[in-house]
User: What shape does this take?
Amino acid sequence: MTSMKILQYPDERLHKLATPVREVTVEIQTLVQDMTETMYAAHGIGLAATQVDVHQCVIVIDISDSRDALHVFINPEIIAASGESTCEEGCLSVPGVFEKVRRAEYITVRALNIDGDSFVISAEGLLAVCIQHEMDHLLGKVFVEYLSRLKQLRLKSKLKKQQK
Ligand code: K1U
Ligand code: ZN
Assistant: This one.
C-alpha cells in the first residue's frame, strides 16, 4: 500500500495550478490508486492530486459510508451549474478546521475515467460540494480562501505556530 504525504496549509505548493492529463497512462492509473489509498487511510471523502504535490488534473472521491463507491475524475470540467447551497467543509490539508462555504447546488461534470473514457455525471448534495472543493484544489485554491481576510490571517498564524 502506498500512502502519500498530504501537503498542509499554508504550504505554497497548494497554490500551484494543475495541468490537464494528456493521456491516461499506467503512471496516471498508479497515481489514482495511490491517491485512493491515501484518501481512505486519512478517512477523507475526497483528494486532489495537488494535495499530494502532483500538479495534474486528477481527483478521487468516495462519499459512501461503506467506502466502496469510488469516483475518479481526470480533467474534470463543470459543464452546467445551478442553485446555491451552503455546507460545512473540511480539508485534509487544513486539519481541524470546518467552515461554511457557499457553492452551486447542482452541477454537471464531464471528465475522463480511469480507462481514459469520457463520462458525464450530474451531482447534488455532498457529492456536488466535494467535486467543487476538489476542483478548487486543482486551481490552487484552498477552501479557507472563501473566509474573510482577517479569519485567513488568524488561521495562517495559528497553523504556522502548530507546525513548528
Ligand atoms: O482534503 C480534501 O479535499 C478532502 C475533504 C473533502 C471535503 C469534505 C467536506 C466538504 C467538502 C470537501 C475531506 O475529506 S475533509 C474530512 C472529512 O472526511 C469530512 C469532513 C466534513 C464532512 C464530511 C467529511
Ligand atoms: Zn481539501
Remarks:
- Helices lie at 26-41, 125-138, 149-163.
- The chain has a mean pLDDT of 97.
- Residues 12-163 form a domain with the Peptide Deformylase fold (CATH 3.90.45.10).
